[in-house]
Amino acid sequence: xxxxxxxxxxxxxxxxxxxxxxxxxxxxxxxxxxxxxxxxxxxxxxxxxxxxxxxxxxxxxxxxxxxxxxxxxxxxxxxxxxxxxxxxxxxxxxxxxxxxxxxxxxxxxxxxxxxxxxxxxxxxxxxxxxxxxxxxxxxxxxxxxxxxxxxxxxxxxxxxxxxxxxxxxxxxxxxxxxxxxxxxxxxxxxxxxxxxxxxxxxxxxxxxxxxxxxxxxxxxxxxxxxxxxxxxxxxxxxxxxxxxxxxxxxxxxxxxxxxxxxxxxxxxxxxxxxxxxxxxxxxxxxxxxxxxxxxxxxxxxxxxxxxxxxxxx
Length: 313
Known about the structure:
By secondary structure, this protein is α+β, with helices and mostly antiparallel strands. It has helices at 59-67, 96-103, 110-118, 121-130, 180-183, 215-224, 241-244, 261-267, 282-286, 289-294, 298-305; strands at 5-7, 28-33, 38-39, 45-47, 56-57, 69-72, 82-85, 133-136, 142-148, 154-160, 177-179, 209-212, 229-232, 251-254, 276-279.
């Protein structure tokens, strides 16, 4: 059976691209529309670093995110794909008691220790409660970033491990990243991610929203620039039409990591339209050459120069 959308077959190293998730070169296969003989959007494809990265953004997911349509298999009578309106999908959730248990845990939490090193215990406690920062036993010192949506449904929790002093992610001997529903071994769990920090939207309906990529960046930046409600996508693929619907009628400023400005700018046209989007080029203009080489984000920049909100335009 011939499919309309396929991953580009390997021919030479030039047929592999930079992964939009992990940033590695020559590891990303893009999807091709065989009917039109063109590529899909440049983030639609699969990284071949399945263990280290695992990024796979399919044409089906792309159409769901942008057009709210579902792709189905070609029929015997037609080899063309047929599109039908997407049915409302089931959203699985995690019991609230597990979130509370993780926040009351007495096990060490390296990320919270890092926050205490750069701020003070009172500020750290406020951040922990505000952003629902939990502790996991999966790895010693592991953190849970819970995803709670605007209706206070707990979609799941991302488990990550950080160094308690540097605040950097522990990536050796393997990337320490997992999910609560996987750790609990819940069968057939349908994870439908939302923006990290989405539960804060109803706390202040007038505040503008700032969106970054990592949960860590959102949490830290909220201390320096409290005029925003800080949220995170978790990955660039989660900055999409579906996840930005909840931002309808709000003012939103996107803060891409260094060297990510153009990609985020291109993304705006694929997002939910009834939102006032702006994109910040602050660190693109202000960062040094070394900072750009390291791929700093807004939190790295704010921590380095200890700016206050009134100095940021």
